[in-house]
Structure formats: structure tokens, C-alpha cells
Amino acid sequence: MPEPFACDIYASVKKIRYYITGHGLGHASRSCQIINTLRRRHPGIAVEVVSDAHAWFFAGFLDPSVLVRRRRLDIGVLQQDSLIMQEGETFRACRELMDHREAIVAEEARSLREQGVDVVAADIPALAFAAAARAHIPGVGISNFSWDWIYGEMAPAHPDCADVVQSMRRDYACSDLLLRLPFHGPCDAFRSIEDLPLVARRSACIPSGVRRELGIPEGVKVGLISFGGFGLKDFDFSFLATIPGWFFLAGTEMAADCANIRIITPDRIPYPDLVGAADAVITKPGYGIVSEAIANDTAVLYTSRGAFPEQPLLVDGLHRYGRAREIDNNRLRRGDWGEDLEALLAQPSPKERPATNGDEVAADRLAELCEY
Predict the structure, then answer these.
(1) Helical H segments across the chain, by residue range
(2) pLDDT digits (tens, 9 = 90+) for 231-248
């Protein structure tokens, strides 16, 4: 099988290889938005994605001209579901990946050279920067955090894993530039940083049209249940039938028997259109859903995802730029949402609105780097 970019048609074009972590959906969501914008604004630049994120997500949201090669270059954080992290299992998986670090970096560096890639972009596997440096091409991070920060916050409970954090920091230090997104952590392993506006997918549809397509009656409020790639384990959706005046959108067949729930599938309606059609999103704070809720002016009822260092930054952003209200894990899992949802919608509109054209800024910057 030929390598990506090997066809003659790509012999003289500029090429970007974009590495994307498989953790959750937020990294893939914002990366797809940037790549799609890059292909639209700079169609002469070819892009390849390397990731172990969900294949269905790329099939539904990524420009079909972009080749996707499956490979895992980082672990992210392993989780039981969207609300429960598995720290010990995460560090064990990281150590297993470290055992193959040299082989992965060598293989990717060789491929980058052979395929004539001009720029590596990454959100935000550390090994991608080590491979880019070895291939002597620019390595550009695009993220609001790096995994050394996330793991560093966990490390005190796992003192034998400090070397995992240090290895990541050394690899991030190989980068040439970080295009840093809002709601960011320290990112102090990177040598050079430029700040981006928010990257978020925005709906182009009229909410009433989306609701009609889903068969939702007029005059009811709509809540989008959004728990990313990890889901919400053992949740009993039947409790939601007791909330009057609300219909809910859920991406699982577990909810099929509830009269006030509509099942959504990735191939039916683009997710930003669902966010834009909802009165409220019920979720845990993750970059993808937080940014899309802000960009589409949708209120957010959120619950804690545990001691994840990114969470306070996203919560601050939600309260600054949107309407947001917290519900504790127990009430969330009981489906006791009615009073909180009504209180959420009674909040005034935010006084500030952020710029949401980060995809355009990032796309143009990557195109500029291709010319160096």
C-alpha cells in the first residue's frame, strides 16, 4: 500500500501532517475545524491526519480530501466514563508507550522525510514534536494544554511516574511554536507561544428547522446530553420523563424508550447544529462542548469531571462568556435536573463575547509556516 502523499499529484505541493490525540472528542473537533478551514482557504496545501481518535468522527466531520492514518502517539487520560478518571491505568499505559518511544519517533521521522512533509502540527501528542525535530522540520502545537501539565498534577499520587512527565516535557521542548488556545494551562515546556482566538464549530442552521427534523413538538425546551467520547455509564434516562416541558437529545440507544428523548446519531445532523438548536447542553466541562456552546450562545448545565486540571479554566470561561450552572454528580446521575435547568435559562446573557475565528488564524499561520 502506498504511503500518504506518495502519489505524483502531491509531488510539488506543500504538505502538513497533523497529529491528533485520541483522548475524548474535543481535540479531534477543533483539529477538524482548523484543517477544514485550512483546506478551504489554502487548497494547494495537502494535509494528512495521524490519530487514534474515533474513525466515525473523522468520517463525519473532516474534509474528505484529507487522508487519515491510524496510529497512537499518546494515551491521554483513561476513564471509566466521562466523570471518572483512571489515573493508575493511565500511567501504566504511558509507561508501556514509552517502551516503544524510540521506534515510534524513528519511524515517524523517517516517514516525514520520505514524504517531504513541510510542517508538523499536533494537538497535542508529545512524540510528534520529537519526530519533527529529528526530521528537521517545524513542529507546531495547537492546544490549550499539554499532557505534561495534566500528568504533573496527578504525579504526587503516583511518585514512581515522574519520569513519564519529564520525558513528555523534553519532547514538547522540541517544538518550534505553540498556537495556544483560550482557557489554557501554563504550557511552559514550549519555547515559543502565540495566542489564538477560540476555535469552535458554529451552526449555520435555523434551530426551528433542526427541531422539526428531529420531530420535537413546538413550545418545549430542548436539552442536549453531551458526554463526549466516554459517555455516562449506567445512567437511567427514564428519570428525564418526569421533567415537564423538556425534550432531550441523547446519543445512546439506552434512552430509546423515553417519550421525551430523541436519539441522535453522528451521521444524521452535524453536532454544532444540535448545539445551536438546544436551549441547554447538559455536560461535563470539555473544550469541545464548552467552545461550541459559547460560539452558539447555548446555556450549559455542567457537572464536575473530577480533579482534571483543565476543568477550572473551562468553567471560568463558561461563566465569563456564557450562561452556566453547576449540578453535582449525584443529582446529575439521578436525573434531578428540572429546577437547575429552569434557573440556568433565567440567567442574563453574558456581557462579553469572545472572538471565535481561531480556526482561520491557525489555518493562515500554518500556511505561512509552509512557505519558510
Answers:
(1) 26-41, 55-61, 87-98, 101-114, 126-135, 147-154, 162-172, 207-213, 271-277, 287-295, 311-321, 329-334, 338-345, 358-370
(2) 666 677 888 888 999 999
Question: Closest by alpha carbon to 151, among 129, 179, 124?
Answer: 124
- CA–CA separation, 215 and 217 (whole Å): 6
371 has pLDDT over 60: yes
Partners of 272 in the β-ladder: none
Single-letter code of the amino acid located at 302? Y
Query: On the CB side of 178, how many CA atoms lie within 13 Å of its CA?
Result: 24
Q: Is the Cβ–Cβ distance between 339 and 363 less than 8 Å?
A: no
The letter for the amino acid at 44 is G
pLDDT of 7 over the 50 cut: no
Per-residue pLDDT reduced to its tens digit, 154-188? 888 888 788 899 999 999 999 999 999 999 999 99
Give the list of residues 6+ apart from residue 192 with CB closer than 8 angstroms, or none. 175, 176, 177, 178
What SS3 state is found at 107?
A: helix
- Residues 172, 148: contact at Cβ < 8 Å? yes
DSSP string for residues in 293-346: HHHTT-EEEE---SS-TTHHHHHHHHHHHS-EEE--HHHHHHT--HHHHHHHHT
Task: Enter the C-alpha cell of residue 330.
Answer: 449525584
In which band, very low, low, confident or very high, does the pLDDT at 211 lie, cut at 50, 70 and 90? very high
Antiparallel, parallel or unpaired: β 299-302 and 324-326: parallel
| 347 within 8 A of 299, measured Cβ to Cβ | yes
Which grid coordinates belong to 242? 418526569
Q: How far apart are CA 105 and CA 130, in angstroms?
A: 6
For β-strands 67-70 and 79-81, DSSP reports them as unpaired
**Residue 219, helix vs strand vs coil:** coil
